[in-house]
Amino acid sequence: MNSHTTVNNHPSGDAAGPQGDGSAMHTDNSESALDGTALHQALAIATAEEREDIMRETVRAQLADILAPAAIDDDSNFLESGLTSLTALELTRNLMTLTDVEIPLVAILEYATPAQLGHYLAEAYAAVNTGDSATA
């Protein structure tokens, strides 16, 4: 079992569903319910490849919470999955709260799948945490 499985409470490759277990990653559309502590701990010990997996799974979990009960896989296009401008704002707000990484709203269009956005977030997170903010 790798670190992203424990962060998001579901095996890699499964469609992320809303988490009713009260975990730190669960959101009930309340910013106070978003606690990135477990995510930051997992990212701190992860390799670059694991960090990308963790971010991809985090994107999938947050998107599944917002678009429930839609099945979300790594290559699900956000807009084709039903993401609207309002839910895109919610997704970016949730991800920024969890990761402490600034995410421009246009990133949802430029990186339009969980795999693409996860890759972007992993690179941005690494840049922010190494002090290279020009990359983020």
Quick take:
By secondary structure, the chain is mostly helical. It is built from six helices and no strands.
Describe the protein's topology.
Layout: H1 3-8, H2 37-45, H3 48-67, H4 85-99, H5 107-110, H6 114-130
Helix pairs in contact: 3-4, 3-6
SSE succession: HHHHHH
Low-confidence stretches: 1-32
CATH superfamily: ACP-like
| Tally of strands | 0
| Helical content (DSSP H or I, runs of 4+) | 40-55%
Major β-sheet profile: none
Instruction: Please state the average pLDDT score.
Output: 77
Structurally, how many domains make up the residues? 1
Strand content: under 5%
| Helical/strand content category | mainly alpha
- Stated plainly, the CATH topology is called Non-ribosomal Peptide Synthetase Peptidyl Carrier Protein, Chain A
| CATH architecture assignment | Orthogonal Bundle
Integer-rounded radius of gyration:
13 Å
Quote the distance from N terminus to C terminus: 30 Å
Pfam family, one: PP-binding
Protein name: Acyl carrier protein
InterPro entries: ACP-like_sf, PKS_PP-bd, PP-bd_ACP
Keywords: Phosphopantetheine, Phosphoprotein
